[in-house]
Write a structure and sequence with these properties.
Shape of chain A: globular
Number of helices of chain B: 11
Number of strands of chain A: 0
Number of helices of chain A: 11
CATH architecture of the largest domain in chain B: 3-Layer(aba) Sandwich
Largest sheet of chain B: 6 strands, mixed
Number of domains of chain B: 2
Shape of chain B: elongated
Oligomer: heterodimer
Distance between the termini of chain B: 37 Å
CATH superfamily of the largest domain in chain B: P-loop containing nucleotide triphosphate hydrolases
Largest interface: A-B, 22 and 24 residues
Strand content of chain B: 25-35%
Order of helices and strands of chain A: HHHHHHHHHHH
Distance between the termini of chain A: 22 Å
Order of helices and strands of chain B: EEEHEHEHHHEHEHEEHEHEEHEH
Number of domains of chain A: 1
CATH topology of the largest domain in chain B: Rossmann fold
Largest sheet of chain A: none
Chain lengths: ~250, ~300
């Protein structure tokens, strides 16, 4: 099962970095966005506005991290549909490679990119902006990787339903990005209308945001077992669904 | 020589379209076997069932004594596959692909660098897949199909879209594979390719095998008629030609004659007649039937799209 996994993962990483916008799009954009927003909002936060400063301290890093995670998922959806359309998946399958190995290589590559982008973001943040000194970075990185891993499984469901590679990016974006609006990142969930609150409760991103915000603010993992459980459920459900409906060609 | 591939009574339909209908045949060890037919005849579906990539609705397939669907991983260790219209990652380098493939098999792979050299790709080893020409891509796919030193090699529409020169070079490569004792199973819709390359062919149309044999025997069986076209001003010619043994028809337009007859002896008989009667000719050509004609006769349509 593991035969070829690391080699394939390494190749997928290299191939992705060779794309003209590969590294820039997924790594540079979230980091730059984080820095620029941090500068603008940070200046405002000097004024006595508690809300703004809390957003800069917790909301912004979490927002940037969610973006990193979602762009990894979108990129996965796009790559998988291009690979399917070009017959690359089929070609890889006609070898002793197990199907799980082929898909796992992509997941691992994306998780590595997610972690590296996060690392860059933190480094940049430390350099240009005194982001919370007491932030538990290691735990946060683990939380982000777990969150991304879980949402990548949604990526496979989306990759299974998009008709062609051309639609992969837009359809993926339409499904994923609106979740940001009501996942508790900008508006506290308690402040949402009851109907929207119901929707929020079934959105995977809600649990991602809750977990990331908690860990970033220094809360214990034990306080977020519910979030973790929800993400595991998302992973199990989506993996099961995509195992049923995934198309290789 | 035993049978390496045995297919009996396989059937595959997609919805209401029947792609493969009761197909049976056997491929012998060490031969180049071609499945020929027009696009959409069921060639690729049949091949992919044998490779274990698709499951036939019914019927039995055995490759090297294995069930291709249930024992697909065991089988893939021992076969090499080139798929129709396959691609690789756009920006994967040639050596990376070969290196990846070499790592996938349990047994020791052949020397990838040597393989690239043999296929004329050594100077392309650092190139991205997307920057290779059509012929180079196909040669890379052949390299990947050979990396595990397979016992059976499957080649699906190997030369489609290639220029005649690359095509000939690839035929040479395929003959080389057979000469190293491997069995080659290929599909093509190019009759010339089948005729020049295959030891035996099966003609498939609408998912059914119409006939199967060596190209020569297929031609002899279905199109025994040959023609000689010659030009002469000899006034006695027409009469003499009519009495050649085996001739079925003589037609003329001015000084050009078309002599039709059966069997391989026709050309010799015509030459003997010309020489015995001292008939002077200013032009002489033979028209021999080929697989294309067999196909036309068996299916009532030309294979060319």
């Amino acid at each position: 099962m593991l035969r070829g996994l690391w080699k394939l993962t390494w190749i997928e990483i290299k191939v992705f970095l060779r794309e003209p916008l590969g590294a820039v799009g997924t790594i540079a954009v979230p980091v730059l966005l984080f820095l620029v927003l941090g500068k603008i909002l940070g200046r405002g936060a000097a004024l006595p506005s508690l809300g703004a400063s809390r957003f800069v301290r917790v909301g912004l890093p979490v927002f940037a991290s969610v973006l990193i995670s979602l762009s990894a998922v979108l990129s996965l959806v796009t790559i998988i549909s291009i690979y399917r359309e070009g017959g690359i998946l089929k070609r890889l399958r006609a070898t002793p490679l197990r199907p799980q190995t082929i898909l796992s290589a992509h997941v691992i590559a994306k998780l590595i990119f997610t972690a590296s982008t996060l690392a860059l973001m933190i480094l940049a943040g430390k350099r240009y902006d005194p982001v919370g000194v007491a932030v538990p970075l290691f735990s946060f990185a683990i939380a982000l990787v777990i969150a991304t891993w879980s949402i990548l499984s949604i990526g496979f469901v989306i990759a299974s339903i998009v008709p062609t590679a051309r639609f992969a990016q837009p359809i993926g974006a339409v499904i994923l990005y609106p979740m940001i609006g009501i996942c508790g990142l900008f508006v506290p969930i308690a402040a949402l209308p009851p109907a929207v609150r119901g929707v929020t409760r079934v959105l995977p991103l809600t649990y991602v945001v809750s977990l990331l915000q908690g860990i970033w603010s220094g809360e214990a993992w034990s306080a977020h077992l519910g979030d973790l459980a929800a993400l595991v459920v998302v992973f199990v459900v989506c993996t099961t669904v995509s195992a049923k409906i995934f198309r290789w060609e | 020589m035993g049978l390496v591939i045995e297919v009996s009574g396989i059937h595959k339909s997609y919805g209401r379209t029947v792609a493969v209908d009761e197909v049976s045949f056997g491929v012998e060890e060490g031969e180049i076997f071609g499945l020929i037919g027009p696009n959409g005849a069921g060639k690729t579906t049949t091949m992919e069932c044998i490779e274990g990539l698709r499951k036939p609705d019914r019927g039995v397939i055995s490759v090297l004594g294995l069930d291709p669907f249930r024992q697909v991983y065991k089988l893939q260790e021992r076969i090499g596959v080139q798929l129709q219209q396959a691609q690789l990652q756009k920006r994967i380098k040639v050596w990376e692909a070969v290196d990846l493939w070499a790592s996938l098999y349990r047994k020791k792979a052949v020397d990838g660098e040597r393989l690239l050299e043999q296929l004329g790709l050594a100077d392309k080893r650092e190139s991205w897949f997307m920057n290779l020409s059509g012929g180079q891509k196909q040669r890379l796919f052949i390299a990947l199909a050979l990396i595990n030193d397979p016992e059976v090699v499957f080649l699906d529409e190997l030369t489609t879209g290639l220029d005649p020169q690359s095509r000939r070079a690839i035929w040479e490569l395929v003959r080389g594979i057979r000469d190293r004792g491997k069995t080659v199973f290929l599909t093509t819709h190019l009759m010339e390719e089948a005729e020049r390359l295959c030891d035996r062919v099966a003609i498939i149309e609408h998912g059914r095998i119409i006939d199967m044999d060596t190209p020569k025997r297929l031609v002899d069986r279905h199109c025994p008629e040959r023609s000689v076209v010659l030009t002469t001003e000899d006034p006695m010619a027409e009469e003499r030609f009519g009495s050649i043994p085996g001739v079925t028809a003589v037609s003329r337009s001015e000084f050009q004659f078309i002599i039709r007859g059966m069997g391989e002896e026709l050309v010799t008989e015509v030459i003997v007649c010309l020489s015995e009667n001292r008939i002077r000719v200013t032009d002489f050509q033979t028209i021999l039937p080929n697989l294309e004609d067999v196909f036309l006769k068996l299916t009532g349509q030309s294979i060319r799209e």
